[in-house]
Amino acid sequence: MKDKTITDLLKKNGYKVTQKRRALLEVLEHNARFMSAKEIYESLLSRHPGISYDTVYRNMSIFTHLGLLETTSLDGERRYRLHECSGDNCQHHTHYVICLECSTTMALTDECPVSGMKFPENFQITGHKLEVYGYCQACQENI
């Protein structure tokens, strides 16, 4: 997602575009995997020593609410990743394989497997997500 689109989305929803928010998004942009708030916090400490864990966690909630982030839960901990398709014009969703060791995240590019499933006629689907867990090649070699 482009920086201007993120900036416009934040402003449109009444949020200021601060250095800390930009830094948080930059960390996520440079890590194509799901990251915990703690990992994000630790990666920001050297450049922003005054940042608090609460600031990171609060902004992750804001960004998730605005559709900028996707979330998952690994080992009982919420993890965040920049949404590949964000904002008002999002037309698709993505499914992932996620390494349980290093959290490497890879998008599945095939057609959505849920689209061929049969659901009860009186059930209105509003969304879904599919995540497959295992070990990437590098981690398999270290096990």
From TrEMBL:
Keywords in alphabetical order: Cytoplasm, DNA-binding, Iron, Metal-binding, Repressor, Transcription, Transcription regulation, Zinc
Q: What is one GO biological process annotated to this record?
A: regulation of secondary metabolite biosynthetic process
Q: Name one matching Pfam family.
A: FUR
Summarize where Zn(2+) binds, as residue positions.
Answer: C99, C102, C136, C139
Q: Output one GO MF annotation.
A: zinc ion binding
Taxonomically, the superkingdom here is Bacteria
Cofactor(s) this protein cannot do without: Mn(2+); Fe(2+); Zn(2+)
Q: What is its main location?
A: cytoplasm
Please state where this protein is localized.
Cytoplasm
The record's Gene Ontology cellular component field reads: cytoplasm
Q: How is the cofactor bound?
A: Binds 1 Mn(2+) or Fe(2+) ion per subunit. Binds 1 zinc ion per subunit.
Binding annotation for Fe cation: H92, E111, H128
Assigned protein family: Belongs to the Fur family.
Q: What is this protein called?
A: Fur family zinc uptake transcriptional regulator
Q: Which organism is it from?
A: Desulfurispira natronophila
What lineage does the source organism belong to?
Bacteria, Pseudomonadati, Chrysiogenota, Chrysiogenia, Chrysiogenales
